[in-house]
Amino acid sequence: MPLQTKKAFADADVPTIAAVDAGPVARVLDVAALARDLGALVGGERGGGGSPEVRAAVRLLLKERIAAARQVVETMLFADGSGLACAARLSMVQDEIIRAIVDFAQTHVFDTANLSAAERMAVIAVGGYGRGTLAPGSDIDLLFLLPYKQTALGEQLVEYLLYMLWDLGFKVGHATRSVEECIRLSKSDMTIRTSILERRLVTGEVMLFEELSARFQKEVVEGTGKEFIAAKLAERDARHTKSGDSRYLVEPNVKEGKGGLRDLHTLFWISKYFYRVDTEDELVALGVFSRQEAQLFRKAADFLWAVRCHMHFLTGKAEERLSFDIQPEIAGRLGYNTHPGLREVERFMKHYFLIAKDVGDLTGIFCAALEDEQAKEAPGFRTFVRSFRTRARKIPGTLDFRIDHNRITVADREVFARDPVNMIRIFALAASQGLEYHPDALKLIRRSLRLIDKALRENPEANKLFLDVLTDRADPELHLRRMSEAGVLGRFIPDFGRIVSMMQFNMYHHYTVDEHLLRSIGILSRIERGEFREELPVASEVVGHVRERVPLYMALLLHDIAKGRPQDHSIAGARIARELCPRFGFDEHETDLVAWLVEAHLTMSMTAQQRDLGDRKTILDFAEKVRTLERLKLLTVLTVCDIRAVGPGVWNGWKGQLLRTLYYETEPVLTGGFSQTPRAKRLEHARAALAERLSAWPAEERDAYIDLHYQNYFLTVPLDEQVRHAEFVRRASAGTDPVATLARTDAFAAITEIIVLCPDHPRLLSNLTGGCAATGANIADAQIFTLADGRALDIINVNRAFADDADELRRAARIDANIRSLLNGQAVIPGLLAQRRPSRGPRAFKVSPLVTIDNALSNMFTVVEVEGLDRPGLLSDLTGALADLNLDIRSAHISTFGEKVVDVFYVTDLTGMKITSASRMERIQRRLTAVFEEPDGEATSPASMASARAFGIPTAR
To answer: Does CATH number 1.10.110 belong to domain 392-486?
Structure first.
C-alpha cells in the first residue's frame, strides 16, 4: 500500500508496519540475486567459503547492497515522510542481510546440510529490533536460541555471523541461551524479560521459537502483570529524572527524553505484557484508547521515528539528542517553512513538543485504564467498587467532584457537559484542597475540551476561579501545569495556547515558552513561601509588602505570552494584557500595572547587567522609567523569577548582586530619601571613611595611597572592597614584580574575582580578557581603575566553572600565567586561543552584529554597546579594537545570552572627553563590526604596539 505524502502527514492515517510499502527496497536488495552472487564467490561449492579472500569479498558485496538499500530507504523517507515506514524498511533490510549471512555460512562455510537436533538453533530479534523497527544507527539485538547447550558448530555459526555484522559496521548486542536459560533469567532480570517480550524469529528453527514463546507466556508473564508494570513505570521515572524530567527541554533526547520514543515503547511493553495485545487497534477494542487516541499514538510514533531516522542519516551515527547544531537541517528535511514571527526550525520544534505533550497525555490515559483494570482483578470487584464509591470522601460545596485517595475525580461522566464552568472549577477545588488529579478526571477533561468556548471564557465565575488557581498560596505551578497538560489553559486563554510547546531557537532559553512561564510562577510562589530568604534576600523581603499581589502573578503569566510574533514581544504582550485583564475583573489601575510590568519586564535585568551602576545617570534614568516604589518592588520580584526560570545555571549570585545594587540605589530616589549632596562632599566623605579603616597604616603611607585613586573609584566601589584593594596594592608595591594578581572565589555569587595591578597601557584590558579566554573562562564583568602613578587596578569577574574552590583557584593560576605571558611578550592572544580544544559552539546560530554609540546614557562617558555572536576571545578582540581607536575604557559590562553577547563599554577619548564627532563614531562602528565579520584577523596592530612601547610595556609580538 503506498504511503501518504509529507504534505498530508499531519492529517493522514499512519499505516501499520505490516502495510508498509517496501517494494523499492526489496528490488534494490534483491534477495534471490544476492544469494546467487554470494554463491558465485565460491563457485557454488559447498564448504568452500571459509578463506580470508572469500570473507573479504562477501563483506564487500554485502556493504554495497546495504548502502544501496539504505539510500533507497532514505529517499523514500523524504518522499513519504513516514518514520514508522522507514524504521520498518530498515528492519526488513537487516533481516535479509542476517538471513543471507546465515544461509551462506551454513551452505558455503560449514556445509551444514544435515544438522542434528542439538545443532539446530533460532536467530531471534529482540528489543527494538524485535518490534520490527530500526533507526539507521540502532543496535542490532540478537538472541541465539539453542535447544540444549552450545555445540561446536553452533558456536562457529554464531561467531561467523557476529564478526561479519561487526565488520559491516553494525553495533550488535547478543546472547546465546537455551530455552531453559531464557525462562530462568527472565524471572530474575526485568531487562532480559523485556527484551524477550519483543521477540521475533529472523531465521532458524521455528519450533524452538514457538517453545520459547509458549513457556515465556505461561511461566514468566502470567500472574506478574502488576510487577512488570511497576518496574517499567519506575524505570521510566528514573530515566526522566536523569534526562531533566521535562519534556520541554529545547535540546531533547528523542529516544530517552520525556515524551520521546522510549515512553511510547513503555506503553507498548505494558500493552503486550498486561493486555496481551500487539496493536493500538486492539487497545481500542478493549476500551483503553478511543479511536482518536489510537491514531494519536501512531502519529506520535511516526513523527518521532521520522525525526530519529533523519538524525541518524544526517549525522551518520546513532545521534539521539536533537541539538541546536542539527535542528535547522532536520527542520529542512521535514519540509518546514518560515512563517511570520517563527523560523522554520521553531515551527518544527513546536510540532516536536506538541507531539511530546501528546505522548504524556496518552501515558495518563493509559495509566487510568490500567488502574481500572487492576481494580477489576481484585476479589469481589463490583461489591468493592460500590462500597468504595459510597465511602468516597465528598468535597464541601459540590456534588460534582469527589476525593479518591487524595485525588480529585468526577462524580459522573456528565459533570462538564452539565456545567462547563466545572472545566475550571475542578482545578480551583484541587488547589484549595491540596489535591492531585485522578487519571479518570484528566481523561474526561481532555475529551471535553470542546466545551471551552467564548461563553466560558467570558464567564465571570470561571475567570474568578482561574485567578484562584493562578494565585494559590500553596502550589499554583502544579495546578496550572495540570491545566496546561490537559489542554484547558491553552483553550481558556487562546493567547497562551499560541505559545504552548513553542521553543526559541537560541542557547539561552532551556525550555519552551509555556514551560518557562509555568516555572516562573512556581518560583514566585516559593519566594512567597520563604524558601529563598537567604539566596534572594531582596525579593523575599519586598514580596511580602507588595500591595498588588494578583497583578504580579498575572504579569508573570503573561510576560512572554507574545513570543513568536513579528512585533517586539514586550510591546505585543502589553497589548494582550490590556485586552485580557478586564476579562479577569481587573480595574483600570490594575490593568495598566500588568501591562506596564509586561512591557518593562526586561528593563531591570538589562539595566543591571549592561549599564554602569556607579554612574548616577543610570540610576536616575531607571528611576524615571519605574516612577513608583511599588512598581520597583514588583519589577524586582518579576525580574528575579524570570531569570531563574530560564534554565539551570542562568541565575547566579553575581546577577543577584547587580539587581540588589540597582534596587538599593533606586529606592531612595523614588522615596525622596536621596539628598543631592554635592559630588565634592561625597568624595570627601568617602576618602575620610577609607582613611579611618586604614588608621593602622603610617599616616604618610596612608595618605599617599589614598591620593593614588581618582574620584570615580571612591564613589563606585564599596568601602569593604576598597580596604581589600588597599591591602593588595600595599603588598604588591612592596615587591619587585611590576605585575601582581590576586584571585578570590565567591561561591554565592558564582564568580571568581581576579585582580590585576600592573603598568597601564591601552591594550591592557585586551590582554587581560585574552588571558581569561585562553582558559575558557566566561567573563561576567570588568571594573577598570587607573592609578595616579600610571598603574592600573583592574578587577575581572569570571563565571564559576568548578564546584570546588581549589579547582577554581587552579584555573585562576592558569589565567594568571596566561596574562603574564601576554604582558611580557612570551605569547600572543591568537596563539593562546589556538591551543584550546574547540568546543561545541554556537555554529548553528546567526546573530547580526550591531554597534550602538550613545552620549545620552551618561553625563561623563560615551556608551558603546556591541551585540553579536559570541565566540572565544571576542571580548579580547573588542577591547583591542577600542584601544586601536584611541579610546579609554572606563568600565565594561559583559552580558551573555546563550550564543548572543551584549558588551557595553563606557569610554572617552584619550583626553577624557566624550566622542562627539560623527565621522569618528562611524569609524568606531565599522571597526567593531569588523571584529565579528573578521574574527581571525590579527589581534595586535602596529598602533597598539606603539602605544604599549610608549608605556614601557613589552609588546606581545
So the answer is: yes
